[in-house]
Each structure stands twice: as C-alpha cells, then as structure tokens.
C-alpha cells in the first residue's frame, strides 16, 4: 500500500487539496475542449421562436468560409456543424425561419431533400464514408439544439468511428479543422442537376 501523496500539504500525513494535483504527471493524456462549454452553456442558441439572434438566420449573411457554408440554394443552404458528431457533419437549413417540418413549402421540402442527396454525393467524393446518419431532431424534447430554426443533419459514418473517446472520455477526436473540411466538401459539391 502506498502512502498518501503529500504535495502541497502543510503537515506530515495531511492530504493535499484535489486542485493541487492538476498538472501532476500521471499515466493519462487529456484532450482539453474548452470551446465545448459555449455549446453546453447554450450561448448563441435562440431562447424563443424570435428570429433575432438565430445563428441559422445570421449565417447566410457571412462569407462561405466564415459561415462554414458548403453550398447555397434558392431556399436552403448546407453548412458544417460547428459542434460536429463526426468530421464532415453537415446540416441542410431553410433560409426561412421556421421551427416545424410541416411548415416547409413544397419547394423548400424539395430543395431540402435535394441538398441531402448532394451532401451525400459531396461527402462520398471528399471523404469516402461507409454510411450516413440522416435526420431531423424536431423540437427541444426531440433533441434539437436550435429548435427554433428547422435543420436536417447529414452525418458521415465510418466503421469504428465510435471508439472509446466519446463513450469513456466524452471527447470527439476530429482529424481536420472545420475550414479545411468545408473547403473539401464545397469543392466536391455536385453541380445542380
């Protein structure tokens, strides 16, 4: 049995405060992702159905690179997820600020569907995924992070992409910066049919 660590303790046998162990070398490596606290804390998420301060309403006014926009259509656009589940995680979003799938016009629904197809084509060309998760989290209770503005997720998947990191370490490992991913997918985006 080993004796208690006494680093920082003022009397022999006294244990140090837990914060004093921060930075003490051990067998673990750590991936710090402090930028995730912005998402966890809800910063930038609309608190009501109001259009002001909606990130999906503001993104189209930015440049493609600054807004992480992959493609723009007449009624919808494709954008990289700022907090991706996997590399290349796209969202197809109507420009119009609506919360419910049933509010889409037939033209918006058709272009949203077309953009999902084009997302798959571009992601296959850029990153060769083995499969996809495609879906809409409808409403807060349904898991929508930004429930006030409808958006559909297109998540590329590879065998073994769900390793121990997200499960045990609550950390996602992304091998590429978002701006580099956006450029690759935008370059692979298919021409309008």
TrEMBL record:
InterPro entries: AP-4-A_phosphorylase, FHIT, HIT-like, HIT-like_sf
UniProt cross-references to CDD domains, sorted A to Z: FHIT
Species whose genome carries this gene: Jatrophihabitans telluris
Name used for this protein in its record: HIT domain-containing protein
Keyword Nucleotide-binding among UniProt keywords: yes
Pfam families named among the record's database cross-references: HIT
Motif Histidine triad motif mapped to chain: 149-153
Record keyword Nucleotide-binding present: yes
HIT domain residues: 55-164
This protein's UniProt keywords: Nucleotide-binding
């Amino acid at each position: 049995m080993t004796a208690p660590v006494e680093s920082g303790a003022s009397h022999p046998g006294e244990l140090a405060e837990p914060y004093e162990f921060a930075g003490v070398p051990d067998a673990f490596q750590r991936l710090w992702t402090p930028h995730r606290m912005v998402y966890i804390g809800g910063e930038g998420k609309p608190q009501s159905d109001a259009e002001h301060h909606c990130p999906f309403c503001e993104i189209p006014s930015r440049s493609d690179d600054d807004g992480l926009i992959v493609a723009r259509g007449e009624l919808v656009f494709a954008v990289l997820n700022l907090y991706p589940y996997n590399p290349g995680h796209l969202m197809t979003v109507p420009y119009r600020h609506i919360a419910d799938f049933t509010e889409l016009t037939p033209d918006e629904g058709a272009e949203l569907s077309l953009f999902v197809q084009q997302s798959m084509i571009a992601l296959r060309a850029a990153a060769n995924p083995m499969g996809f998760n495609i879906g809409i989290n409808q409403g807060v209770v349904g898991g929508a992070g930004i429930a006030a503005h409808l958006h559909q997720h297109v998540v590329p998947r590879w065998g073994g992409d769900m390793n121990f990191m997200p499960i045990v370490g609550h950390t996602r490992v992304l091998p590429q910066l978002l701006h580099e991913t956006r450029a690759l997918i935008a370059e692979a985006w298919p021409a309008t049919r």
